[in-house]
Here is the input.
Amino acid sequence: MLTIEGIDAGYGATTILQGVSLEVKAGEVVTIVGANGAGKSTTLRTIAGLITPTAGRISFEGQDITRTAAHEVVDLGITLIPEGRQLFPDMTVRENLLMGAYRKAARAAQAETLEEVLQLFPRVRERMNQQASSLSGGEQQMVAIARGMMARPKLLMFDEPSLGLAPIIVSQVFEVIGKIAATGTTVLIVEQNVFSTLKASDRGYVLENGEIALSGAAEALLRDDHVRQAYLGI
Amino acid sequence: MNIFLQLVANGLMLGGLFAIISIGLTLIFGIVKVVNFAHGEFLMAGMYLTWIITVGLGLHPYVTVLAVAPFLFVLGAMTQRFLIQPLLLARDDHVQIFATVGLSTALINLALLIFGADIANTPASGLRAPVQIGPVRILEGQVYIFIAAVLLVIGLQLFLSRTQTGRAIRAVAQNRAAAQLMGINVDRIYVLSFGIGAACVGLAASLVAPLYPVSSTIGTYFVLTAFVVVVLGGLGSIVGAFVGAMIIGLIDSMAGFYIGSDLREAVVFGVFLVILILKPSGLFGTRVSLSHIS
Amino acid sequence: MQRTETFAPPAARPVYLRPAALALATVLAALFLIPVVVGDAFIYHVFITICIFAGLSTAWNIVGGYAGQLSLGHAMFYGIGAYAGMILMNMGVSPWIGMFAGAAVAVVASVVISYPCFRLHGPFFALATIAFLEVFRVLALHFRDVTGGAMGMMIELKLGWEWMVFRERLPALVIAYGMMLVCLGVAWAIREHRLGYYLVATRERESAAKAAGVQTVRVRLLAVSASAALTAMMGTFHAMYLTFIEPAAVFSLTFSIQIAMFALIGGIGTIYGPLLGAVLLVPLTEIARGALGAQALGLHGFVYGVVLLLVVLFMPNGIMGALSRFTREKAAETPSQAGPVVSMPRAETRPPLGAEVMRVEGLQKHFGGLHVTNNVSFTLREGEILGLIGPNGAGKTTVFNMISGFMRPNGGTVSVLDRDGKMHQPVSPGDFAALGVGRTFQIVQPFASMTVEENIMVGAFYRHPHVNDAREVARETAHRMGLAPWLHAEARGLTIGGLKRLEVARVMAMQPRILLLDEVMAGINQTDVRRAIDLMLSIRDTGVSIIAIEHVMQAVMSLSDRVIVLSSGEIIAEGKPQDVVRDPQVIEAYLGKDFVHADH
Here is the structure.
């Protein structure tokens, strides 16, 4: 579904990714793990079109999207739920969710999608008319995920969904991700919470210093000595 | 007492004038995050166009808005597309400031080249006639400006909150990166917003021209006050700009009478500096950071 | 450090033979000789005007360029100088004295105006300066007893050197030229000394400059004072030269914009850019004015505006920037591979832990209702390495901000021991730096437009005020940190790993006693992690205490004497690293409940 071949990318003159290649098949849940600063977020932002790679190729469903602008990537069915929620602070929760359905393919069905999404997030339904900035961190993360789903994406990407959340909320977030994957949506997650994420995934990539150091089935990675030592501390 | 009421009325009418000039400025800042130093020259261009059409075709000045607003929309959209957009990546303060300062300098002097140093009077079409409302007398044109300012505020608010495009504009203003992730074409929204902001100035130009003679430096005269109004109201806040305009209008009117007409401006700018230094977010701009906006 | 010398730019030729120096000398000589040789009054006038604008623009550049504070109200200082000179002259005081009086008033005005405006950035600073200028203009119009109001002011005609007024043109050129040289000299001196580095650093990253011990407000006030004084002195002379002034012309926004514009077009922030801008553009105005008169009303202004637009779009660094792109030598070619961090020889035995050097008690911080830090207390001893770990968002960086003065806690205290063994409670980043607390930033904060060497020098200046000493220390530090190959590359071109090391190098150059390191290992490779660990241990062995926020567990385990674990703003565990990682609470906070159930 998504193929990345040898991309280099970074900010300005600073290169962060060097020759990263990875692949996501339809219906999979794939994780990219790695330390802070390894380039995980940069990878997702490059796929989303927020950063244009300086080398390499990205394709989605056979179409080259290496240089496609961010808003057009969304139109093709890739949605990124950014790190740190990034809600529209002065809009209500309802307005935030409707912005999620801005994509042409999602606009017509936005009422039905909203209903479906709210089934998954009963707490969000109670907050519909509140300003997004007045929500707690956990609630904001739920709204951010719900907003991402409103686009009815084929590929949903999560950037550090557990960031800054209490452990109890983190497990709820992973529960929700599991449910989303169960609906057949393809999922690509970037996380520092290595254990929980790999548990919820089919396959994983380990990113170190902007390069893929290791990849394989999630279970195999969880048993891998290097991963256990470097990321699980055991 | 009558004098005081008259001063209040004058202040409010002046406020209406400041409001209609300032709304476009605050809109552009709120969305594109660019302080448009050429805003006053947009007004000047609009007033000259109004003058040309009214004198040339003998039309009522208010009719010219049909040509002036679209003209300024295009001028604004082009400014964004060909001047600001290439510089947005740089995100460098001095480059952005000098870009619009340069545009302002070029436009002022272009007007000077074309129209010379003399002032041009748009026919008043009866709009300078005084009307008596209760104990106070004001000009007919001022009343229309005030009404237009109120309608413009309401119209823009409805547009921004009720339409899909309006919501997209607000989304871009609140979080540019997230808006992109929703599939919004941010560059297009910026061009559109700059155009709308400039078109608002076009409306202002057609309404103001019958009351004030136009010259190449008319923009500088008004724009400094517009900056005061917009900072006072909170940059980016449309309602704030309206309230700010009323406050500045009243201060201007009162200071002119009680302190001395030649010190009016000093008082207004004094207020401006106090606001800028003590509460730079203005009365309504709680979220807009005045430092580097990313 | 012999071997670092090889990285110096190929500047072996004597200064006077370098092409840039030759070009400068030629321009300066021509500015004086051409009018003298031609002898035409109009040419004299053009060149005098060039000198005046070059001087004004050079003075503006100290604030607008070096310090990055975009003033569009500089005409107020010019006006102060002009009126002070004129008023005093008409009272019988020579403008040679009057110009210092004007400069003094301008300095006071500039400090009073700038101090509250420093919290404003970019366009808002510019707007505030415009507003002040307008206030000055209105006041000058109002107090007509002093200024003559809108009618303006004429000088009483008194000729001779004493009065700065002459029938012939040569003496005026001598004065204008001399004053321009003074402006250039001051601008050069500032840029080439510590103040200049501090100004540029403050412009590039104010927080990083503060962390490096720069008193950012003070250096900016110094810059503004120097600039205002020079501008006012120029104003005095210009008034004498014009023999007539009025508020609209003197306190003019257009005039202010022009001054700034020459600097931008020539090359903002460079020493000689403003000179170049004035040399190229002033003749245009004057010739248009002289040749076409009233017909060309607005023509030169229009050309100025268009040139400004073109420069902004296609040459944002001005002519100097465009020139240096062509002449830049190999120095800018950065090697693509990361240089190794030099492993340091270490002492056989580490010194014992010393006295308590930092004590943190009951730190509280909340943003709105959200508690980011809740009752955090710990101590740090001399020569100790304290690891600070916890999941992202646990509040580690917030704690760092509070123990380095960048954020005021809502409750609790931070005490730091000074060199004489007394405990202090510092408040500002400057206080912390003075007590020897140095920090890095998690999100790297390089001074992007400065070279690696200059970046580190900003830190080194803290203990070595002289440029050459600071450069020496910077090179040595760069070598230790494996940054030597990039000494002359701009910081913006480094990789993320390089920037992390630059961050550490800058703070190391300050020779701190307490080092706060925020995730310096993130994004560097395994070999370098091991070397970085050795480096930190060797730093510790010299008696420096370190608090390190770190995610790389390998580093945390082998470095730390003690580890503190933060979760949701609270300390949930503290102790030896081996014990802490086995704490069930820690495992849950880091790895989630599932993990605890799965493995235990």
Q: What stands out?
A: Residues 2-115+137-278 of chain B form one domain. Chain B has one domain: 2-115+137-278.
